[in-house]
Amino acid sequence: MANDDVSFTVARGGIHALLGENGAGKSTLVKTIYGLVKPDAGTMRLSGAPFAPEDPRAARTAGVAMVFQHFSLFEALSVAENVGLGMENPPGQRDLSRRIREVSQAYGLPLDPERLVGDLSAGERQRVEIVRCLLQDPKLLIMDEPTSVLTPQEVAILFATLRKLASEGTSILYISHKLEEIRALCDAATILRGGKVVGACDPRTTSAADMAEQMVGAAFKAPTSRGGAPGAPVLQVADLSLPPMSQFGTPLRQVSLTLRAGEVLGIGGVAGNGQDELLSALSGERLSTPGAVTLEGRDVSRLRPTERRRAGLLCAPEERLGHSAAPDMSLTENAAMTGADRKGMLRAGFLDWSAARGFAEDIIARFDVRTPGPHVAARSLSGGNLQKFVIGREVLQDPRVLVVNQPTWGVDAAAAAAIRQALLDLAAGGAGVIVISQDLDELLEISDRFAALNEGRLGEPVPTATLTMERIGLMLGGAHDLEAAS
Amino acid sequence: MIRLERRPTPSRLWSGISPLVAVVLTMVAGGLMFAALGKDPFEALRTIFWDPIFGEFAWYFRGQLLIKAGPLILIAVGLAMGFRAGIWNIGAEGQYIVGALCGAAAGLAFYPAETRLIFPLMIVAGALGGFLWAMIPALLKVRFGTNEILVSLMLVYVAENLLASAAVGWLRNPESSGFPGSRNLSRWEASANLEIWADTGIHWGVVAAVVAVIFAQVMLTRHLMGFQIRLAGSAPRAARFAGVVPGRLVVVCLGLAGVLAGMAGLFEVTGPAGQISIDFASGYGFTAIIVAFLGRLNPLGIVAAGLLMALTYVGGDNAAGNLGLPAAAISAFQGMLLFFLLAIDVLTNFRVRMGRGVAA
After folding, report:
1. What's the whole-model pTM score?
2. How many angstroms separate the CA atoms of B68 and B336, rounded?
3. A284 contacts in B (CB within 8 Å)?
4. How many contacts (CB atoms, under 8 Å) link A and B?
5. Which of A182, B62, B116, B223 pairs as cysteine with A17 (C-beta 3.0–4.6 A)?
6. DSSP state, B268?
């Protein structure tokens, strides 16, 4: 049962946190409120009136808006067109563009209405979703994992936005795994586990550890860093420049870095500063000029993804559905997608499906992926479980270098800790690991050195131990869109 | 008010039975059309669907069924590989014609030599012709990003003109005293694609179709190339990440379709058609698109779909001859089949909700 006898109340103008692990029933609960799922029993009231939405349209009409974790945007359309599609009675394009500018400025969410969504980063796409909700003037705004893609400064801006909305009387239901954030923002919290309410607290006065314990049911293991001396260079990138993937993309400008065996290098930066481009240049999806990418002394710049994998350079892109995994294919097929070569599933070009199934079962078992079995489609897994599968698939192939982009985006605390621990263990085993992330806490926690990616330029890596949040802010400094529009 | 509501996961039931429902609906709508034309609908449907298999002259029609189904299946299997990968080759008709022209030309170059080596040579030439014709849209797409739908389709019309010029010019039978058309290849022992067993309709093209079906089925389910085709069709970005080179896939899929269509053309011109003539192009290349989708892009499904489509041809001819149904009515009947299939396909991903609701 996804939800069992759940009761809670969100105050008018309150910011209410909904906490819980993957599979705790948060998504089902908010889908019920948003009219996507019909409850078997129980009642809801909105502003005192009985509330039983037939569908999301009815929920929106009643004043409920929601920003989803997986964005529902059309890549081929512009920001304004996307916003218009989600509205009941959209005004004309010109009028709509003007209103988008107004709202985005009023709430500090800079957005160009004319740009194509396909060219936006994850962080910018989220702004589209938020602005779309704000234009509906909602009574209740539901936000699912909203800060996963934001920098501390952007988080501060978002929080200011949410507080402003709350002070204007909008109620906010806030789903997040970041306990410190919830403590900073929310004034009430409901904790779910296994579909049931297991606790309620005032997060301003409850410690993060207490909340985490209630959520997980037991204290979870925080990742440990080893701090051993790094070994010989495994991956060298020299003067890597690449034109942007599209008109609005970010070019890579003379990116250079050296990754040593046994080291975790953290690369931070605001979304859309070249993270996707850097990953595609390392994965081999895009080729670079000879000499730009060297793996253990071998020039791999002109090698395709399969050959790079064979050489020991593995990657896990940010977007799970459709990039690092094929949504409609089974986990067995997804295991074969990148593992066919290194896991010996190929015999003269023929795939050994029983070996692929064995590998998928191995990943499921060792990374605690909650799923009925390797035959299910990737899309049926929750975000956290699919991410564990994707990271596990690469880690278990015993890479020399692993590059991951946003490894714990939208993943609950326990799963994120498991993923981080797996990355640390991989480095401890002598591999080099690059973690590209917008979650600075994560980078500070697991990386030995930290570098900032800003408009396609990679700064000089510095030892993480010497860093503070303020210093990082400066390293990311000059990154676009940081200051609140006023 | 009728509404469509998206299913959380595609329905396996509807995916399986939608071709059957489409066939039934086609019969109903077709029956109404025949009735409107003043014919007894039950008799018309019986003439189309029953008589060719179980009627008095079934011994003749069953062979015809395989003769029609062979090229349809052969071409459709090649097309389905591309369609699975999201590569839309609409020009199999052109590849079929050019395959026939190349194969016929290669054979006729040795006329009147008598050696059994000529027929295999013609098969290779036919396959090569179809392959090269398909490489035009393939390479244009890879090199310049042109749309393969448009280019492959336009090349059909070029191929039709090549066919006309061959029939009245460079392949014309010099002993025909001016009549258009090449020498009769099915009456020249070195090139004849005869029935392997008398009256079964099984000629080398049917054998090739069976081989192609098995080959495609094994490739799709067992081989890395088939996996890459399915991956590219299902999630293009994930496919690139996995290491699929999109350009290579375009060349392989179009090339494969070209080879099979070219071979189908060659088997046709050396067998049932007998010669290169102005009206050699009979639309198999276009009908095969319907067959591919009717068979759900699955090689085994395509066998069933090819046989069904052949039945509408053979039975349609039968009905035209016996009942005086116009040929256009038979074409419309075949069109209905694709129409209903696509319409019913919606139910795989959506469910119909009756009753109250607001207009979308």
Report:
1. 0.74
2. 19
3. 243
4. 67
5. A182
6. H
